[in-house]
Amino acid sequence: MFLFIFLRAFVRFALRQFYRSIHVIGSEKRVDEGALIVVANHPNTGMDPLTVASLYDRDLWFLAMAKLFRGRLRGWLMRRLHCLPVYRRQDGEDMRKNFEMFDEAIAHLHDDSALLVFPEGTSNNERRLAPMKTGPARIALLAEHRADFKLGLKIQPVGITYTEFGRFRSNVTLIIGDPIDVSAWRTQYAANPSRAVRDLTAEIGKRIDALTVSLGDLKNSELVDKLASVFGTSTGPNDHARLQTIATAVESLTDQTEVRDRLEQRIDTYLSDASELGLLPGEELSRRSWILTGLSTPFVLTGRLLHLIPIWATAIAAARTKDPTYTATNKLLGGILFCFAWYVAVGTALYFCLGALLAVGGLAALGLLGILANRNFPQVKVWLLSFPFLGRRQRLNRLRGEGAVLREQLLALHREAERERSARAANDAP
């Protein structure tokens, strides 16, 4: 239990370093007591359980692929991390073993613990839900049935929206939905258990879908992702609202090939110009906090230089990732491992050269400079590019102008799409 609590606190800190912004909506709906199954979409293999688990301050158990438990040491560690094995047909596992998992999961629910389950059963970098598996509904209804429907079990949907699935210092929005009272399915379960499982599964899918951005046509994914990378948080209060705006605008262009092609060409030009300036899409281009950024620049650059080795090592390791759903996870784990190794090496050198006290002080200073650089290096890059003597000021201003034009075009498309949607709704009304 201590290991789980410690790792939860550490993961929260690590996520704050990895993501530029973690926006949580619906915290007041969070179920903090009693039996609970948390269900969420699953677009980002390792990051999804970490981000969702960070929302809850309670005992939480995870359902994970059984192949992750192979080996005595790994099996022991997965159990200590509150994971239960799920046996999948595509992994060549004996599906009958899932009955044991069901019993163990239900035992935890009867102890008023919580489960975290991803009903899609697999992860994919798509802005659309895969078909729901029946596992969460079966566990929920069976748990209530064994308690004569007096358990008070709730199913809480959570929607996860990433600006970019694999990019470091991108944004994520988590929306906590209204909980489902499983006891409401008592009569239906008594009459037809299979039908109750199917209906509850459909309800779970409907609830999650309402908390995420789902594209009607996945052919629009590339253009939506490009726009998402360009605008940061500038077109909405959070990633979900911003991506919904972008998705609505892009899908309104389905029959306007010429307009769509011009928009995509303009976006590609913007991305190319940003790359030539050494900027990533969506990095802050405004003039806010000008003086503060200037004062912090020496410390930010020092922190960046002192961490170049773990930064490069992480980038090299992440570049070898074959499955894109693991890109962000490998960057996070690589960053943790390489930074740990770097700090051990620096701390050891300081200890033998300067003594224990100065070694501790040096590591503390190194850590603070690293955090400062991690959070502020993009703004410092823009600040430095703004000086005329670097010869990049005019190109930076032109990039700002291109971004403003793109933003206005996007919002205009969104307003037009919303007007058409409202008009259709009014015509369909009785």
How would you classify the helix and strand content by structural class? alpha/beta
Full CATH superfamily name of the largest domain: Glycerol-3-phosphate (1)-acyltransferase
Terminal CA distance: 57 Å
Low-confidence runs (pLDDT<50, min 5 residues)?
A: none
Q: What's the rounded overall pLDDT mean? A: 86
Helix share, percent: 55-70%
Number of helices: 15
Question: Can you tell me the CATH topology of the largest domain?
Answer: Glycerol-3-phosphate (1)-acyltransferase
Q: Biggest sheet, in brief?
A: 8 strands, mixed
Q: Which CATH first-tier class of the largest domain would you pick?
A: Alpha Beta
User: What would you report as the Rg, rounded to the nearest angstrom?
Assistant: 24 Å
What is the overall silhouette? Answer: globular
Number of strands: 8
How many structural domains?
Answer: 3
CATH architecture of the largest domain: 3-Layer(aba) Sandwich
Report the sheet-strand fraction: 5-15%
Helix-strand topology string: HEEHEHEHEHEEEHHHHHHHHHH
